[in-house]
Amino acid sequence: MVESDPVQLVAERLAASTLTVVLTGSGTSAESGVPTFRDAQTGLWAKYRPEDLATPAAFAQNPQFVWDWYQWRRGIIADVQPNAGHRALAELARRVTALTLITQNVDGLHQRAGSDHVIEFHGNIMRSKCSVQGCGVEVDLTDDTSPPRCPDCGGALRPDVVWFGEPIPPAALESALQAVADCDVMLVAGTSAQVQPAASLAEVAKERGACLVEINPESTPLTAIADFVLAGPSGRVLPALVNALGSQNA
Ligand code: NAD
């Protein structure tokens, strides 16, 4: 292994890190067979934009239509398995001093791969919550073919995800901001870094002096400020990183 191998250099940073933060996006689930947001408009849904489906206004106007889109996505997620990238992140948490995993994904695949205490920045598609402001009831997924009614107030239940124009759940935002302010290494994997405020988490970490590492086959707005760019699919790059860390610790 040559000293200038970027995977090896990042592994050295991870070995010395006191707090590593990982931010993941939908690209990390692509190798499991979950379409990324930009790719999710296939078949039946090809003529719609996510921005037209994933909004409170769309649900208010046509709850059945939005529910159907989520049921389709839930069906895909129920049928897939975590990939090597998800498993590598669960392993990474055991190899570094401390790790906080923040995900924009709503698919629960990190948890299924063995990651604990995942900060779900955009919620979880397998849960539903009441759409009535101030009600706050959350329920696990049911197989209803139309939006079920809230057991408390009778309002329509909706997917427990953050839609365009909605705030990040306060506890998730607070924990994520604290982690990026305190970390010394931040890995950003599989996100186009176009959805705010998630993308700005990496900027905060960088401003606070963390080593910023991007893992993505394509360049993004973060590429220019990253200290290391590991170009490639996360299902290949993340296991390579964990392997390299193993040789560091040996
Ligand atoms: P995005 O679709 O905007 O971008 C996906 C990124 O992943 C791109 O930069 C692409 O180059 C990269 N990518 C593709 N394949 C990859 C691979 N194998 N390894 C690593 N990177 C790969 O997704 P986003 O940035 O996460 O933002 C969009 C929003 O979509 C998020 O808010 C998220 O909540 C939502 N979303 C989630 C899921 C999911 O939970 N799996 C699926 C679709 C959308």
**Taking Cα atoms only, what radius of gyration do you get, to the nearest Å?**
19 Å
User: Pairing-aware structural class of the strands and helices?
Assistant: alpha/beta
The CATH architecture of the largest domain can be named as: 3-Layer(aba) Sandwich
The strand count comes to 9
Model description:
The strands form 2 sheets. The protein has a 6-stranded parallel β-sheet with strand order 3-2-1-7-8-9, with helices on both faces. A 3-stranded antiparallel β-sheet has the order 5-4-6, with helices on one face. A hairpin with a 7-residue loop joins strand 4 and strand 5. 39% of the residues are buried. It is 37% helix and 16% strand. It folds into 2 domains: 150 residues, TPP-binding domain (Rossmann fold); 68 residues, SIR2/SIRT2 'Small Domain' (2-Layer Sandwich), CATH 3.30.1600. It is elongated. It has 250 residues and is an alpha/beta fold. The mean pLDDT is 92. The structure holds nicotinamide-adenine-dinucleotide.
